[in-house]
C-alpha cells in the first residue's frame, strides 16, 4: 500500500504545522526537522523540543506517527542519539544526508557528506549497530553535492549499511530547489538497491504525484513545500473524489495554527510564524495573499487573529472535516 510522508523542512514543518496538516488527512508518516548532533549525547529536552509528539506515543493529535531525524557526521554520537530517540518513543530514526544549507554543510553535515559514500556508509552502519537489527532506520539523500556521479554509490552504501528505506530528493545540493526534480534518477537508484525507495521533489498537485510515481517507479512519495502551500494535497491524492479545499476550509486551519503558535512560540516570534505560512498559502489561495498584505505590518498575534476573524466567515470546522 502506498504511503504519503510529510517531509522534514527546517524552520517550517515543526510540530505546530504537522498538527494542522495531519488533521486534514492523507499523511501516513511525519519526519521531524533535523536534530543537529555534534560529538555528544544530547539531553532529552532537545528531543522533546523538536519532537513534542514523543510525549504522546510519537504521534500527532490526528494519530499520525512521527519519526525523529538526526543530522551530523560523528558516527558514534549519532548512534548514541539514535538510541535516545528510540528510547523516548520515536517511530524510528531518520538520518539526514540531504540538507543543502551552507551553515550545515560547513560543519560537515547534510548533503556535503554525499561527496564521500564510504563515510555515509560508516555513519549508517554505526547507527544500525547502535540501535540493533529490529529498530527502523531510514535515510534521506539528494542526488549528490555538485553532480550525480556518486548518486548510486551513496544509495548503495546506505542500503548495504543496514537502512530499512531511503528517501531521495531528486536534485543535487547545487541545484537546491530549482525545478525540475529529476525523478528519472530516482528510478536508477531504485533499481540499484534492494531496499524501498521513496520519491521526493516538485510534487505540487495530484497529477505531479501520479507522474512522479510513474517516472520513479516508487510506491511511496514524500511531500514537502507542495503540501505547505496546498494543505489538502495529500487528502486530494488519497480521495480524489472530494472537492479541493477553498479558503473557507483553509481559514479554520490557519486559526488553529494561530492557537498553537500562541501556546508554544515566544511572543516576539508569534506574528512572524503566522505570516510565514500565510505568505506561502498565498501562492495558491488569493485570500491568503490578501491577508498577508493586510497583516504584514501587524506585530501582535491577537491583532492578526482579529483580522482573520473579521475578514471571512468561519465555517463549521467539524462538518468540513467529516467531508
What does this structure look like?
- With 323 residues, the chain is of the alpha/beta class.
- It has two domains: 4-238, TIM Barrel; 247-322, Bacteriocin As-48, Chain A (Up-down Bundle).
- It has 15 helices and eight strands.
- The radius of gyration is 20 Å and the shape is globular.
Short description:
The chain is an alpha/beta fold. It has 15 helices and 8 strands.
Secondary structure elements and pairings:
Blueprint: E1 4-6, H1 15-24, E2 29-36, H2 44-50, E3 66-71, H3 75-87, E4 93-97, H4 102-106, H5 117-131, E5 137-142, H6 151-160, E6 165-169, H7 183-192, E7 197-200, H8 206-216, E8 221-223, H9 225-229, H10 233-238, H11 247-264, H12 267-281, H13 286-295, H14 301-311, H15 317-322
Parallel strand pairs: 1-2, 1-8, 2-3, 3-4, 4-5, 5-6, 6-7, 7-8
Helix pairs in contact: 1-11, 3-5, 5-6, 11-12, 11-14, 12-13
Number of strands: 8
Protein structure class: alpha/beta
Tell me, what's the shape? globular
Question: What distance separates the N and C termini?
Answer: 23 Å
Order of helices and strands, N to C? Answer: EHEHEHEHHEHEHEHEHHHHHHH
In DSSP terms (H or I, runs of 4 or more residues), the helix count works out at 15
Strand content: 5-15%
CATH class of the largest domain: Alpha Beta
Name of the CATH homologous superfamily of the largest domain: Aldolase class I
User: Major sheet: order of its strands?
Assistant: 1-2-3-4-5-6-7-8
Tell me the CATH architecture of the largest domain.
Alpha-Beta Barrel
Largest sheet: 8 strands, parallel, barrel
- List segments where confidence is low: pLDDT < 50 over at least 5 consecutive residues: 313-323
> What value does the Rg take, in angstroms?
20 Å
Q: Report the helical percentage.
A: 40-55%
Amino acid at each position: 500500500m502506498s504511503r504519503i510522508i510529510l517531509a522534514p523542512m527546517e524552520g517550517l514543518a515543526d510540530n505546530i504545522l504537522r498538527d494542522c496538516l495531519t488533521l486534514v488527512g492523507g499523511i501516513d508518516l511525519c519526519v521531524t526537522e533535523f536534530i543537529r548532533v555534534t560529538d555528544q549525547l544530547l539531553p532529552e529536552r532537545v528531543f522533546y523540543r523538536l519532537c513534542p509528539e514523543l510525549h504522546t506515543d510519537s504521534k500527532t493529535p490526528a494519530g499520525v506517527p512521527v519519526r525523529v531525524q538526526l543530522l551530523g557526521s560523528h558516527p558514534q554520537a549519532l548512534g548514541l542519539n539514535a538510541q535516545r530517540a528510540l528510547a523516548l518513543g520515536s517511530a524510528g530514526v531518520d538520518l539526514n544526508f540531504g540538507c543543502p544549507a551552507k551553515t550545515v554543510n560547513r560543519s560537515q553535515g547534510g548533503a556535503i557528506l554525499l561527496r564521500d559514500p564510504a563515510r555515509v556508509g560508516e555513519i549508517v552502519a554505526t547507527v544500525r549497530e547502535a540501535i540493533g537489527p529490529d529498530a527502523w532506520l531510514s535515510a534521506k539523500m539528494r542526488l549528490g553535492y555538485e553532480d550525480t556521479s556518486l548518486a548510486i554509490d551513496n544509495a548503495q552504501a546506505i542500503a548495504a549499511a543496514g537502512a530499512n528505506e531511503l528517501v531521495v530528493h531528486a536534485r543535487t545540493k547545487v541545484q537546491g530547489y530549482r525545478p525540475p526534480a529529476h525523478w528519472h534518477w530516482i528510478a536508477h537508484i531504485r533499481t540499484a538497491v534492494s531496499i524501498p525507495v521513496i520519491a521526493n521533489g516538485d510534487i505540487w498537485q495530484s497529477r505531479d504525484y501520479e507522474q512522479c510515481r510513474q517516472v520513479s517507479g516508487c510506491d511511496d512519495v514524500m511531500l514537502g513545500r507542495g503540501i505547505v502551500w496546498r494543505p489538502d494535497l495529500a487528502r486530494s491524492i488519497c480521495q480524489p473524489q472530494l472537492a479541493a479545499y477553498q479558503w473557507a476550509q483553509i481559514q479554520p486551519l490557519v486559526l488553529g495554527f494561530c492557537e498553537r503558535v500562541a501556546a508554544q512560540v515566544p511572543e516576539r516570534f508569534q506574528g512572524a510564524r503566522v505570516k510565514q505560512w500565510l505568505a506561502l498559502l498565498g501562492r495558491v489561495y488569493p485570500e491568503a495573499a490578501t491577508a498577508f498584505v493586510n497583516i504584514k505590518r501587524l506585530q501582535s498575534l491577537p491583532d492578526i487573529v482579529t483580522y482573520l476573524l473579521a475578514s471571512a466567515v468561519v465555517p463549521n470546522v467539524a462538518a468540513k472535516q467529516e467531508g
